[in-house]
Amino acid sequence: MRIRFARRSDLPLLQDIERAAGEPFRTLGMAFVADDDPPPLALLESYRLAGRCWVATDPLSATGDRPLGYVIADPVDDALHIEQVSVDPGAARRGIGRGLITHLAALAAARGMAALTLTTFTDVPWNAPYYTRIGFRILTESELTDGLRAIRAEEAQHGLDRWPRVCMRRELTAAVRPSDAPRADALPSHALDAPGSVKAPRAPGASDTSRVSEASGASGASDASKAVAVSGGA
What we know:
globular; 8 strands; eight-stranded mixed β-sheet; alpha+beta
């Protein structure tokens, strides 16, 4: 598996991955989530230009350099916040979701950030239970930072609180950094700066966090990806 920065030509494919990864929510009676539009191209492009959109490919497979999964993230308070992580269901059970998250952890640690964070559905098997298995913990209300409170408020406005959701955090220490962790200069100089002007506005009714754990979690319920879905909805 290769993880690289997204290219502009990848972006429509990322939308396709997101649509496919959302379908398993329909089986849980969560059609609202399954029908949610993928991130708009303008939003994905803003992440790409900011150096905060990565894709996973398998150059040795028939798909070649075609994205099989992707992740976008924002600096939020002292952490790198996973906005979206999704994997093509056809590439399930290959550790892609876990690999993308490990890549983010290494990048964030190299830049001196304290943790990864995300928001996710509590009761969806490939959401909070999956993230717990890979080192995240649920934050109590008193532990939420101002940035996470703002994200949760926006999610509530978009209707995601129809089902229980939580914020989760995974601390970054030297012990969890892979031996081949990217150097700090492996990122564009602005990549982990506060978002601000480079981030396009969300489309009305859409949420770029609605499937953050759903994908990555789906991509790895037993190991790194689950057969049923792979779109992350943290």
